[in-house]
Amino acid sequence: YMPHFRAQMNCVPGMITQFGFTPSKTTEEMRATLEIQDKVKNINEIRVEKSKKLVAKGEDPLERYEFDYLLICNKICGKSHYNMQMKIVVETEEEFNAWLKEQKEFKNSLIN
What we know:
Blueprint: H1 27-32, H2 34-56, E1 69-72, E2 85-88, H3 93-102, H4 106-109
Antiparallel strand pairs: 1-2
């Protein structure tokens, strides 16, 4: 499930599924919107307060939150269901093409 895109695809073990869509805003454009900036500010204020309590108990503080698009599992499918998430990076086509040029070909990525 990709909540920011209001898109979902169900996965079935052993079955190939796919779909495509084109996001309308890059990750950086979303981070620049006032709505997202306000939400991030609020989240980080809460995290600062929680971090104070953690540090007082000798634990590590929480890291600052930064907006990212997410892919998350929304089916209760096992013990590690809550960990089943992945960051989605939305870039311009030019940024993607520049990144792609920096990548090794797959056959060369297997060689150290």
